[in-house]
Write a structure and sequence with these properties.
- The complex is a heterodimer.
- By secondary structure, chain A is mainly alpha-helical.
- Chain A has 2 domains: about 55 residues; about 230 residues, MetI-like fold.
- Helices cover about 75% and strands about 0% of the residues of chain A.
- In chain A, β1 and β2 form a beta hairpin.
- In chain A, α3 crosses α15.
- The longest helix of chain A is centred in the first third of the chain and has 44 residues.
- The radius of gyration of chain A is 26 Å and the shape is globular.
- Helices cover about 75% and strands about 0% of the residues of chain B.
- Chain B is globular and about 75 Å long.
- The chains are: A mainly alpha, B mainly alpha.
- Chains A and B meet through α2, α4, α5, α6 and α9 of A and α1, α3, α6, α7 and α8 of B.
């Protein structure tokens, strides 16, 4: 600051009072963000950097290069965990996009007075996010006590271990994630749909489009960027699956493996095998994936304006 | 649906119908039938999904009114008795010396502690990012957005390794401090301050000789009450329902918050194992009761903060 103001450039004298003020405001700016920046560095940047450091070293701080990453690639547990998460993500994202759009469009095209009612009813399971939702669905899926028992007996499922067999898990976890998360996304999509101007919808109707055509050809393209936003956030969150397989593994008396998802495997290697370098390598893999998709969304989509 | 219903009357004054009256009823009837079918389909889908979303919640509310035996042999949605509800409560309340109460207290301390820290960071930071200029502002904003989109659980194991390094494992700080780092809250405050506070108001205060800190404290902060509630709501819900972070940070079950306590209950009582669980004091009704205790605070916050919720979800999706 002092350097620029001491420059004897023409017109400086006129601007000097202004730039002095701006300088004060700039210092104030640093002060306002300081506490947040401290936490960002301590609990965002530092753990990431430390995990990166651990992932590139062996116990005793010896440089390991990509050894830990190569070891994960050859781990008999890591590849299946990746496959599990891939199947889960596929099921979860398809279910999420199709059903959230269906419900949001039905809600928006429906009786206006009922919108807040349904929106709230669909949002309620959000209060059970986390382990509560998994527990509730363990009850719901336990054939002797389930309200959906007739449906389950159609599929010849009579005990919990049969229900939570490995092949079913991606579907069960997608259902739990949908149950707790869909309501929030319906709120978002509903808000986006409310932003569409009435003239656009009116002119479509005058052109002879019926309700279904208006929904699919007019409304849907106009909320596309929110769908992208939802898919990216759901994808990033989906790679992190932990509480669901952990609880199902606990409740099913070990039927389900303790390293069903990559995060579980990272947890297992850190806690049971005390192999922090290896656990860090898995965490770094997941962090990179999440940072990439987040960066893509921030810089490539036009959702966020950083003026 | 509204299009279908309002579309129907609007067919009446159509020139064709007006020019040829006898045709009108015949042309009207299929459209009437079509709209009835559509309306019926609408209700079927909406009610089916309402059942999907709500039946599990009702089930959990009803389960503690029944014994484990009744859960199996009575209709799933039947109400048991209030007496059983009290007995269920006594059983879960007495579990390991009122441990449920300890977990509830822990949850409150961690969630509220994290929330207060998050607010103390996010409000000045959002204000600074929106209304002051400084070098690195754009970078900080971009980093905030990226971290906001990344799921918090991606940082859990790195945080565990860090806390292990600093010997903070097993202390309340190991969860409260990371809870305080809440980029979504910073972003919400940033949007609020850049869209809701007129810059002229701040300029006027500066002309009157107020320092930057005065401007923030006397002008901006009193106007920021809605955003305090909004960020508080999202921070509280996120902290209260967080499972992974406390799960890795605490090794003593006395320090668990409720979500981890639920997992502990499942593991220590085998409620889902009819053989091992037969003698356990905690069976499925007790587990359902513990779930109710765990979700009640968030549910209450939901009831009172519906408006905040809708605005916040939308602010998260778009700036404006």
């Amino acid at each position: 600051m002092t350097v620029t103001t001491s420059l004897p450039a023409p017109g400086r004298a006129l601007r000097r009072p202004g730039s002095g003020l701006a300088g004060g405001r700039r210092r104030a700016g640093y002060l306002f963000v300081s506490l947040y920046v401290v936490l960002l560095v301590l609990f965002g940047v530092a753990p990431t950097a430390y995990a990166l450091y651990l992932s590139l070293t062996r116990p005793g701080s010896k440089w390991a290069g990509l050894h830990n990453f190569l070891a994960t690639a050859h781990d008999y547990r890591f590849v299946p965990a990746l496959e599990h998460i891939a199947v889960y993500l596929l099921v979860w994202l398809v279910v999420l996009v199709v059903l959230v759009l269906l419900l949001a469009l039905l809600l928006h095209g429906g009786i206006k007075k009922l919108v807040p009612v349904f929106r709230f009813l669909f949002y309620i399971p959000g209060a059970l996010a986390g382990s509560a939702s998994v527990l509730v669905w363990l009850f719901m899926l336990d054939p002797p006590i389930s309200p959906w028992h007739p449906v389950e007996s159609l599929f010849h499922l009579s005990s919990l271990p049969q229900v939570v067999e490995p092949g079913h898990l991606p579907f069960i976890f997608a259902m739990i994630a949908f149950w707790t998360g869909a309501g929030g996304w319906i709120v978002v999509m509903n808000g986006a749909l409310n932003n569409i101007s009435d003239e656009v919808l009116e002119s479509a109707r005058i052109d002879g489009a019926n309700a279904v055509q208006v929904a699919l050809r007019v409304k849907l393209p106009l909320i596309r960027k929110w769908v992208v936003y939802m898919v990216i956030l759901a994808f990033a969150a989906g790679t992190q699956l932990f509480v669901e397989p952990t609880l199902v593994s606990t409740a099913s008396f070990g039927e389900v493996s303790q390293f069903w998802s990559p995060n579980q495997l990272a947890y297992y290697t850190a806690f049971t095998e005390a192999n922090f370098n290896y656990a860090a390598a898995i965490s770094v893999d997941l962090l990179i994936v999440c940072a990439l998709v987040a960066g893509l969304l921030v810089f490539r989509s036009k959702l966020f304006e950083i003026e | 649906m509204v299009q279908a219903t309002t579309g129907h009357p609007s067919t009446a004054p159509r020139p064709v119908a007006a020019a040829d009256p006898p045709v009108r009823p015949r042309a009207g009837r299929p459209s009437l039938r079509r709209s009835t079918v559509l309306r019926l389909a609408w209700w079927v889908v909406m009610l089916a999904f309402t059942a999907f979303f709500i039946v599990p919640v009702l089930w959990v509310l009803l389960a503690p009114t029944k014994s484990d035996h009744q859960l199996v042999y009575q209709s799933p949605m039947a109400f048991g008795s209030l007496g059983t509800f009290v007995r269920t409560w006594d059983a879960i309340y007495g579990f390991q010396g009122h441990e449920l109460l300890t977990w509830l207290g822990n949850s409150a301390v961690y969630s509220v502690g994290g929330l207060v820290l998050a607010l103390a960071c996010a409000i000045p930071a959002g204000y600074g990012l929106a209304l002051t200029q400084f070098i690195g502002r754009r970078v900080l904003l971009s980093v905030t957005l990226i971290v906001m989109i990344m799921p918090p659980s991606a940082l859990v194991l790195p945080l565990f390794l860090e806390m292990n390094l600093f010997h903070l494992l097993g202390t309340a700080w190991s969860v409260v401090l990371p809870f305080g780092f809440f980029p979504f809250g910073v972003y919400l405050c940033y949007i609020f301050f850049s869209s809701s506070i007129p810059k002229e108001l701040l300029a006027a205060a500066r002309v009157d000789g107020a320092t930057e800190w005065d401007v923030f404290r006397r002008v901006a902060l009193p106007l920021a009450r809605p955003i305090v509630a909004l960020v508080g709501f999202f921070a509280f819900v996120a902290n209260w329902t967080n499972f992974f972070l406390p799960y890795v940070m605490f090794y003593n079950d006395r320090q668990y918050p409720l979500p981890v306590g639920l997992e502990y209950l499942v593991s220590s009582t085998s409620a889902f194992n009819p053989v091992a669980g037969a003698q356990s004091p905690v069976l499925r009704p007790e587990l359902a009761m513990a779930t109710l205790v765990a979700i009640a605070p968030v549910f209450l916050v939901f009831l009172f903060a519906q408006r905040a919720l809708v605005t916040g979800m939308l602010a998260g999706a778009t700036k404006g």
